[in-house]
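User: For my dataset I need records formatted as: sequence, then structure tokens, nothing else. Please produce one.
Assistant:
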Amino acid sequence: MIARYTRPEMGKIWDEENKYKIWLDIELLATEAQEMLGTVPAGTAALVRSKAKINVDRINEIELTTKHDVIAFLTSIEEYAGEPTRFVHLGMTSSDVLDTCFAVQCKQAGEIILQDLYDLSNALKKRAIEHKYTVCVGRSHGIHAEATTFGLKFALWYDECQRNIERMKNSIDAISVGMISGAVGTYEHIPPSVEEFVCEKLGLKPANVSTQVIQRDIHSQYITTIAIIGSSLEKIATEIRHLQRTEVLEAEEYFSKGQKGSSAMPHKRNPIASENICGQARIMRGNASAGLENNALWHERDISHSSVERVIFPDSTISLDYSLNRITRLVENLLVYPEKMLYNLNLTHGLIHSQKVLLFLAKKELKRQEAYVLVQKSAMRTWEEKIPFLQSLKENKELMKHISVEELENLFSYEQIFKSVDYIFNRTRIQ
């Protein structure tokens, strides 16, 4: 990879200045390769590079007439470098430049996203360790289920983040493909050795087969990977939004000094970062759908994909970079309220222990459905009368024929959860 392409800011990857610099390098690397073959006078590439300038305004001005961006670019370079530019773009087609440049830009963007993912991974791991044994209620269908730990939520997200890192690595590798193969990919006017030289210098692989364009299935993989990562961030953000609801308030986004939550209500502290991230995920999914549509082009090419890609790739990579940075800060600064977790855990008066009682009775040679009916009877009494579940069980004479008071009370402990937490953390390699 050429040094100037090493991890610029995400937005700058997609600006015209960076794009035209890459175009110029591709053109001059191809010229240099042809010098080595003897088809272009020695020193041509160096001479053109010494005189050429990237003048975005002038290129745009020329394009108003040519209605063709690559021709406008080459015309502008010729105005600065003069006669030697007649050997530039020799045997090449526009997409040799456009698609190879696009691969470089996507690789640059992917490398930034990959670093963002590592940063998020570290933040999730740290909070998982911090709250490894912080007991909270687990919910299914939004209803209290059984006890879990808050650290397990972070461990779950950390594990998914590792998969996203691998997905991004694979997508960067897949999209790091260039082509210098001519009008319909046959190398009729330029030998494959030129393509190999250019791609090696740019840190790319030559496409095994191309038409006039690199095939868009690899771009589909890249843009859908971004959408998958976005959906993972939305998962985290949605959980935080639910946990910050006033009735729950087990966790809360950090509220900085001077921050305002509402123009009307001074008391408001809203989960705005989480909501922003959920909104950005929708954009990424929509863009992925458009990217998939680009895979089916006519014959050796058409340009129906071009206008789409000029929007969705800058849009999605910038959106994901923003979302990853924002959610990493959110995770690092998330306010966690263990006391409220315990309060909420006890809202159902101990009903979350019902399965443990059921399983214990089943081991006592009761049929499972018979045990279920006995436990459910006490559980429904607790729901209706709001008395402690342990009390309701003790007052269930039929149930107590099969279990001692001591055995029953021991079932209302969280110790078994902690053993499993250690096992899960070891398996996810969180140490």
